[in-house]
């Protein structure tokens, strides 16, 4: 059972490393292109924007006559940036974080009238915007692989010669078998530790 847990943890850490590489590539790309993945549903419209080193998750109660996904990629342009905090400029905003929830009557924004055919806003438009920097995503994706791979390797490297490779018990009195955990220690393991 312990081996299975180790195998699953190492597999999850490897997936996390692969996602880290993907996040770093998207981070670099976000400084030259804006990528948007959108979902239009019957009762909401959601989008994930990556641009200028940030990820913005936007959700509004836009109604669509049919459910579908869209992907769009454009060169960065000046103008509206859904990942740019435009209300407050606190230290969190300067670090790249932003959270906004609001509601407004339909028709108060010029873009409400220019929606594509089959899409419409309800009488009260609810809007949710969450922005986080890519550096936070990369940091979070780094923590689990460090915990699974790097910390145990550092512990093994710091263990002095003459100690059990499994539990770290002092083997100077019984160099062949660990009296604590019962592990049989061969010459190669005792010399490498």
Write the layout of secondary structure elements.
Elements: H1 2-29, E1 33-40, E2 45-51, E3 54-60, E4 63-64, E5 68-75, H2 91-95, E6 98-105, E7 119-120, E8 124-133, H3 134-158, H4 187-192
Antiparallel strand pairs: 1-2, 1-5, 2-3, 3-8, 4-7, 6-8
Helix pairs in contact: 1-3
Structural class: alpha+beta
Please summarize the sheet with the most strands.
Answer: 6 strands, antiparallel
Span of the ends, CA to CA: 26 Å
Strand segment tally: 8
Q: Per DSSP, what share of the residues sits in E-state strands of 2 or more residues?
A: 25-35%
Shape: elongated
Mean pLDDT across all amino acids = 81
Helix count, per DSSP? 4
Multimeric status of the protein: single chain
- How many domains make up the 3D coordinates? 2
Question: Regions with pLDDT < 50 over 5+ consecutive residues?
Answer: none
Helix percent band: 25-40%
Strands in their spatial order, largest beta sheet: 5-1-2-3-8-6
Radius of gyration: 26 Å
Topology pattern, helix = H, strand = E: HEEEEEHEEEHH
